[in-house]
Amino acid sequence: MSSNGVNLADAVRDTIYLAALLQDDEKWDEWLALCDEDFEYAIKAFSPEIQYDMTYLSGSRRDLASMTELLPKHNTDHSPLTRHTVVYRVDVDESAGTATAVSSFTVHQTLLDGINSHVDAGESRLFLVGKYYDKFKINGEGVKFSERIVQLNTRRLDKGSHWPI
């Protein structure tokens, strides 16, 4: 599982963790640079009421680039988000130049205002819980995301929640 002295599974893990850091810092261009040109992204949650996966967001790399470019113009909650990600499994297929990974994540939000800003400001709370199902392309340029399915356990997203998770 190594190529040129680099452990490819570790390179995949590093890419997942770097993505979380870049998203926390809202460095969207750098985050998208970790993604292949054919990258596909979706945020989903299973609904037990309708027995079906609901899709909150689905798009290509180009769609995400357009969306993140417009984020500063959205009427949104600017409370910072902090992602905590744990990579459970990485499977590398060196001959195909691909990898898959499954990670668990939580997203915490530190409130800037809240309904009662004098009471809520500065409070941190659990915002989202879910898993990442990632696919990667591995080549001479390194490890790039080719797909990310964000499978949420949390089904209620608050107003102003425009950020890629």
- The CATH topology label is Nuclear Transport Factor 2, Chain: A
* Overall 3D form: globular
Question: How many helices?
Answer: 4
Which residues sit in consecutive blocks of at least 5 with pLDDT less than 50?
A: none
For the sheet with most strands, the description reads: 6 strands, mixed
CATH class: Alpha Beta
What is the alpha-carbon Rg in Å? Answer: 17 Å
Structural overview:
- This protein is an alpha+beta fold and 165 residues long.
- The protein has one domain: Nuclear Transport Factor 2, Chain: A (Roll).
- 22% of the residues lie in helices and 48% in strands.
- The strands form 2 sheets. Strands 4-3-8-7-6-5 form a 6-stranded mixed beta sheet. Strands 1-2 form a two-stranded antiparallel ribbon.
- The protein starts with a strand and ends in a 13-residue tail after the last strand.
Architecture blueprint of SSEs:
Layout: E1 2-3, E2 6-7, H1 8-24, H2 28-33, E3 35-47, E4 52-60, H3 61-70, E5 81-93, E6 98-110, H4 117-120, E7 124-139, E8 142-152
Parallel strand pairs: 3-8
Antiparallel strand pairs: 1-2, 3-4, 5-6, 6-7, 7-8
In short:
The chain is of the alpha+beta class and 165 residues long. The protein has helices at residues 8-24, 28-33, 61-70, 117-120, and strands at 2-3, 6-7, 35-47, 52-60, 81-93, 98-110, 124-139, 142-152.
What are the key terms here?
Nuclear Transport Factor 2, Chain: A; alpha+beta; 6-stranded mixed β-sheet; 4 helices; 165 residues
